[in-house]
Design brief:
Blueprint lengths: L11 H9 L5 H13 L2 H24 L8 H8 L20 H24 L7 H6 L5 E6 L5 E7 L4 E7 L8 E8 L5 E7 L9 E4 L5 E8 L12 E4 L2
Antiparallel strand pairs: 1-2, 2-3, 3-6, 4-5, 4-7, 7-8
């Protein structure tokens, strides 16, 4: 007998898309984090992988934004579009597997972003782009700053002021206490910290955390309750000024 009962975790992966784009409210994020904590490890891993992949795509797009598309790009895209009169096939999807409408919209937006990246690179004729982290490191204005983390380890940040991106890596930093998370903040000249993201996992050389920055800001990390905070609730464990 086939089990057709609803799966409580069926839509968690869909929710990774708006989470990666910071398109959920704080209360929704805390609810999602609570569900993830009780979810199967494979679901948590898939959620984390989706977050990383979406942010990697957005990091690559930051480089494409700096270059004007070739004049023939629009013509080639229009020529590549399918005939509007072509019939579309439809498929039945069981109700328990149908993702929320908002998740579908967000996922479609991400797919559009990815598609635009692929189409642009194809028509321009450039080789496959490096990772978002490598794009920062290869910039002529790239600089590396680092600072000791309270409790041990280092925060290492590769920064490209011209690109407006920073690549964050933890070196021998212990995980946060149980039930808490590391949260990254950017502090500008007004002295008001704004969240750069809740770190679901420790950023490593293989899977760094890439974030947008402005030159001269302070990048800091604090320990916060699971799900993160609207403003820092503890003293930072590390902070480094960005060039």
């Amino acid at each position: 007998m086939v089990d057709t009962s609803p799966r409580l975790d069926a839509d968690l992966i869909d929710l990774a898309y708006p989470c990666a784009l910071d398109a959920v409210a704080d209360i929704e994020r805390r609810h999602i984090d609570a569900r993830l904590a009780a979810a199967d490890p494979a679901v948590r891993r898939a959620f984390s992988d989706t977050i990383w992949q979406v942010r990697e795509i957005m990091g690559r797009l930051a480089v494409l934004d700096e270059h004007a598309p070739p004049p023939e790009l629009e013509r080639r895209i229009l020529a590549a579009l399918p005939d509007r009169g072509a019939r579309r096939s439809t498929a039945q999807i069981s109700s328990w597997r149908r993702p929320p409408r908002r998740a579908v919209a967000i996922a479609a937006a991400v797919c559009l972003v990815l598609g635009a990246t692929v189409v642009t690179m194809r028509f321009v004729g450039s080789p496959a782009s490096p990772t978002a982290a490598n794009q920062v490191e290869l910039r002529p204005d790239a600089r590396t700053v680092q600072g000791p983390v309270a409790g041990g380890g280092l925060l290492v940040v590769d920064v490209s002021p011209g690109l407006g991106r920073a690549v964050v890596v933890f070196d021998q930093v212990a995980p946060p206490p149980l039930g808490q998370v590391y949260q990254m903040w950017l502090v500008g000249s007004d002295g008001q910290p704004r969240s750069a993201g809740v770190l679901k996992e420790l950023p490593s050389a293989d899977r760094p955390f890439v974030t947008g920055i402005q030159s001269g800001e302070l990048l800091a990390v604090s320990v916060e309750p699971a799900g993160g905070s609207d403003a820092p609730s503890t003293e930072p464990i590390v902070g480094v000024p960005l060039p």
